[in-house]
Amino acid sequence: MLTFIFAFFLLIITPGPGVLSIAGVGSAFGFKYGIRYLIGLFLGTNLVALAVVSGVAALFFTLPFLRVSLLIISCTYLLYLAWHIAFSGSEVSFKKYSYKPGILSGIFLQIVNPKAYVVNATLFSGFPLVENSYVLEICLKLLITNLIWIPVHLLWLYIGVAMKRLNLSIKTQRGINCAMGLTIVGVVLLSVFAFL
């Protein structure tokens, strides 16, 4: 069980679209909207986990047209987020939208987030915890992952909100924006590489 917990922690703490976007939303819109977005990420993450453990995701990815479509939608959306983060001016946040990201934005991000599928497939197909009870093992893994996921994402939200209050120099803020955007571009490149 400790191996599973450690593996999940390492997979989730590394910057990816979910944690970078929650930090960006927290920085741009504050804690109130960040919590709404976090709820969406949470629901989306669990929807992806259920799709992976039920086999729906595997079935979906066996159909070439659907797989390519999801890859294109995912990469386009992630590059869109990376662009807005990297070129958000002097703020460590998203470019100001005419709407505030909320629950649906968080759900959508996780559904198109390739890292969410990879993490869930890795965790739920490996690291056996319970012998002879698939349902109990899945329930236990979902409980453990959510108990870790929630505080990690709350921490990233706090980091985003705290960055807004730091009053960093323009050069430092642009450097952070570019690093966050490039990290998401890295996720896109890894997704395309894995697809090929």
Structural overview:
- The chain is mainly α and 196 residues long.
- It has one domain.
- The chain contains 8 helices and no strands.
- α1 packs parallel to α7 and α2 packs across α5.
- The longest helix is centred in the N-terminal third of the chain and has 38 residues.
The count of strands amounts to 0
Q: What does the average pLDDT come to? A: 81
- Assess the beta-strand content as a share of residues: under 5%
Instruction: Catalogue the unreliable spans.
Output: none
**Main sheet: strands, sense, barrel:** none
| Radius of gyration, taken over Cα atoms and rounded to an integer in Å | 17 Å
Number of helical regions: 8
Count the domains: 1
**Which percent range fits the helix content?**
over 70%
Shape: globular
